[in-house]
Amino acid sequence: MYYKEQRFEKAKASTFASTHTVELPDTGLVDTIALQFGLVNQTAVYNQPPVNLWRHLTKIEVIGDTDKTLFSMTGQCAIAKAFRKMRGLPPFTHNGYGNKTQWQTLPIFFGRKPHDGKYALDLSKWDKVELKVTNDLSSTYYSTLSMETRLHTIEDSVEAHAKFLKQWEYQADKPVAAGDYVRPKLPTKGLLRTLMIQLDPDLSASTGLPTADCLGDSYNWKLWFKDRALTIRDHRPRDLMRDEHFARQLGIGVGSLKPYPSTSLATDFLWGYIESIVMSPISEGGADTTQSAFEDEQGRFQKLNFAGSAILNQAISRGYGLFHTFEIPWFVADEESEYLNLETYKPVEIEWYGYNYYNTHRIILEKPIGQGPAEYA
């Protein structure tokens, strides 16, 4: 057995505010679909914060036989899922300056990790498999968007590869008012490998700052089994994010960006809770520069207290809770025999207390699924 990497579709222009569709081959065992995005900014791109590509990838899907969801998430959640499988961020270049290019690698893994060897998507079991990527970009702020599609396939395998890992946004809810609850229930059948939650804050169209951040003491998240007979989680979201990192040995996440220096416009620094930001000015002309300065706080979306005189800035952020997500794994050795049997513990319920309702509660599920529409569930 060996892995083959091929560029299935060269970098191809995508239309703004539309869906880019790629029909995959009729046969092959797909371990990974690797997408490479290139986004060129317009001069005044910083007037539509946040100016990062991941926020504008509103849905990334892999669909089998026209209507069977094999993978479906927003760009933020897809990167957060890949981060946990890779134990590191996929390569990217965020650039908040006009006329600069942003790059984003976004891998879709159909197994537990890159080159899993056990789980893979068997294209031959489906009549048609399509990759669909939807964006909401505007030509007012961006010049061009391109997407390259690469396939990592398993060749000459003696393994059956009877299953792949289906990963999808199961439900997205928002409290109807401040101080209200969201109380979704999970499916009652199948095996659940992981449960990932995103608490996605609404952002100001003029500044890019969250209307209300969900990581304060006034927010709480609970998980129950067996009609609330067993309490599995009951804590503030920021503590759940912190607990995931030391329990799973993910380590503190690190991301590098080039933020636009502004005292009124926010930059997305990735992590729900920031431990530190280190930033340095860059002068394209070689002139002296003055270091910009932040407020002393830990929020993901930050604006400068003092913008300095740099032409460009580059920054490294450290923290946890990538894109306001946390994930609960249902395994130790990561074998299917350990995964959570939803029928055994049903109903599995969540209670999210929205102290302020300007946050969307997203549920991302991951389940082993048999190949083809006859096995799909």
Write a structural description.
The strands form 5 sheets. Strands 1, 3, 6, 7, 8, 10, 17, 18, 20 and 22 form a 10-stranded mixed sheet that branches. This protein has 4 helices and 26 strands. The protein is 8% helix and 49% strand. With 377 residues, it is mostly beta strands. The protein has a single domain, classed as Sandwich (Jelly Rolls). It is globular, with a radius of gyration of 21 Å. 41% of the residues are buried.
Task: Tell me the layout of helices and strands.
Elements lengths: L1 E12 L5 E5 L5 E13 L11 H4 E8 L3 E6 L1 H12 L5 E4 L5 E9 L11 E2 L6 E7 L6 E14 L7 E11 L6 E3 L8 E2 L1 E8 L18 E6 L4 E6 L1 H12 L4 E6 L8 E16 L10 E2 L4 E4 L1 E3 L5 E11 L2 E5 L10 E2 H4 L3 E6 L4 E12 L7
Parallel strand pairs: 5-11, 6-17
Antiparallel strand pairs: 1-10, 2-9, 3-7, 3-8, 3-10, 4-5, 4-9, 6-7, 11-26, 12-25, 13-24, 14-23, 14-26, 15-16, 15-25, 17-22, 18-20, 18-22, 19-21
Could you give a quick summary of the protein structure above?
With 377 residues, the chain is mainly beta. It is built from four helices and 26 strands. Strand 4 and strand 5 form a beta hairpin.
Features:
377 residues, mainly beta, Jelly Rolls
Please identify the oligomeric state. Answer: single chain
The CATH class designation is Mainly Beta
- Unreliable runs, pLDDT <50, ≥5 residues? none
User: Considering DSSP H and I runs of 4 or more, what fraction of the residues is helical?
Assistant: under 10%
Characterize the largest beta sheet: strand count, sense, and whether it forms a barrel. Answer: 10 strands, mixed
From the spread of the alpha carbons, the general shape counts as globular
CATH topology heading: Jelly Rolls
Q: List the total number of helices.
A: 4
Query: Helix and strand succession?
Result: EEEHEEHEEEEEEEEEEEHEEEEEEEEHEE
Strand tally, please?
A: 26
Distance between the termini: 29 Å
Radius of gyration from the alpha-carbon trace, in angstroms: 21 Å
The total number of structural domains is 1
What is the average per-residue confidence, as pLDDT, rounded to a whole number? 93
Second-tier CATH architecture? Sandwich
Strand content: over 45%
**Structural class determined from secondary elements:** mainly beta
